Amino acid sequence: MATSMNEADAANELMRLAKLIAHHNKRYHGEDAPEISDAAYDALVRRNAQLEAAFPHLVRDDSPGRLVGHEVAASPLAKVSHAVRMMSLDNAFSDADLADFVQRVRRFLNLADDAPLAFTAEDKIDGLSCSLRYEAGKLVRAATRGDGQVGEDVTPNVATIADIPQQLSGAVPDVFEVRGEVYMAKADFTAINAAQEAKGDKIFANPRNAAAGSLRQKDASVTASRPLRFLAHGWGAASAVPETSQLAMMQRMADWGIPVSPWLARFDTNAALTAHYRQIEAARADLPYDIDGVVYKVDDLALQERLGFVAKAPRWAIARKFPAERAETTLEAIDIQVGRTGKLTPVGRLTPVTVGGVVVANVTLHNRDEIARLGVRPGDRVVIQRAGDVIPQVVENLTRDAVRDPYLFPDHCPQCQSEAVAEEGEVDVRCTGGLICPAQRTERLKHFVSRAALDIEGLGEKTIDEFFALGWLESPADIFRLKARRGEIIGREGWKDKSVDNLLVAIEAKRSPDAARLLFGLGIRHVGAVTARDLLKRFQTLDGLRETVRLASQLTSDENADEIFAANFDLLAIDGIGPAVVEALADFFHEPHNLAVWDDLLSEVSPPPYVVETKDSAVAGKTVVFTGALETMSRDEAKAQAERLGARSAGTVSAKTDLVVAGPGAGSKLKKAQELGIAVIDEAAWAEIVKAAG
Known about the structure:
Number of strands: 22
Helix content: 25-40%
Number of domains: 6
CATH architecture of the largest domain: 2-Layer Sandwich
Structural class: alpha+beta
CATH class of the largest domain: Alpha Beta
Strand order of the largest sheet: 2-11-10-3-9
Low-confidence stretches: 69-75
Oligomer: single chain
Mean pLDDT: 85
């Protein structure tokens, strides 16, 4: 229990939870690639709330209780500031939680238990939150939720969704912002995945991810080709709200042509609210779209106004989540899959079982430690859970006490027989074979051509597997030599003159690729898309990066000590680059076969120097360090400002630092700057520099 913890342990757990929840928020909201179930995520949030309630003085600035969604990730879409913040919802998980919510509302409003109080109830669509701004009845802007304050502009994309009217009918306010969920129906999701698989393209994990990925496209024609739909659940900025109740206003929006849930209804008692929840829960599997709960809202808009908001959610609404769906089946086998980084991932093969209307035959077992924790072996009866997971998971082993040999996790790679080991402090077991491992080579090739890397249209997973099996693709450079095999490709199943020529044109278009995408595409451990961009912002060219890493990884002697120190400083001074990244780069460039792949690739492609578009400013080209408490902006915002002004933001002060921006409480960094004679300014002076740059 939270109350039995000491203060130090509570502070440490709150720190861990803040980082963990932020990570999963980013995976879900920012990258449309959740790693854990809704139920597991909700458990983390509940634990955080329990600790904060027990130790209110330990509530962190980055508390998950204060955050909505996630900051918009690097995206080709323009950012949009919401006139009225898009909030999240607090959650309930039981009849008692719902009763507590109703009682809290009554206490806040000072209403007696027998005083009338009505609520609306509707199904909670599992889709992507979207805001639609209408002016004089005409749709002028659509935006995703993002972090609640800033989202992505998806106006051209939304124009392709048939459910969303471009012009509202009837008398409407001058400004009215509709809010709801963009989603993909279950049948449409099944059809689009079948089409993706037939083309050898990426398979979507679930309808929510398919909808999010389809809406957040730079090319609206891609969105137009995807069967997206929309249901409204409320509104934001409005010049007028012509009704006095939630239900009446939603009905008015329906009259204007906005789709609303057929399950929306109003109730005056807890029993009726609970009965409606049970009715929706029973119908869940047969609904044409995915839902994950029921949303309750105080019906009277004047009472909503009085209730107001807490940190990230309205006091007048709550989402009652459905429990994770479970089923019992037999674990028939455990297969080991090898990924592009060599990670050995165990996958359980099940006797197929239906969970929540979906037939499940595979389940993730995560890693060696999770297998040991569950004590699972082939032949065990297990309980599996599905709650929107990418792959369902085992939650209980019903026959762990049965006499049977334990499962022995492999200590050699099943693909290349190289030794498989876990590095110190890590739970993941990895193949040490590197590029001699066929599994790693094919997975790395798939990563190299993926959307976030070189994004070569038409070169999907099935094509990579096919060409690799034929011996045509051994390394990334071989992709650019496929044009010599045009005659061999034509005539193979599924390949005709036009499709082959389209593929070769797409490949040739990447002869001068973005350097950061190319670096990311090489699959160097710890070098993700953001890290690759950060490295290229500093070094501009791949050769410059390679030379710096070479110097940084040399053995130190009296003759080269300064040079090696400078190289390490250049790397570690980059915000977000730590020892793990530097070590991974050093390891990569230390291996002769990696250097051979690198040199071979650069003989086929010529990435231009990485260019960072910046404004002319007084700090362009300089290194800036922020220290102390910033009062008018977050540290991340300050670093982003520095980057836009053409400066480099570093985390440490050294002789190469040009400017230190010091807020209240600045300590050792300020002292070191003063000792080195480095210019120091306060936050107000920094704001003037930003303002002067326009």
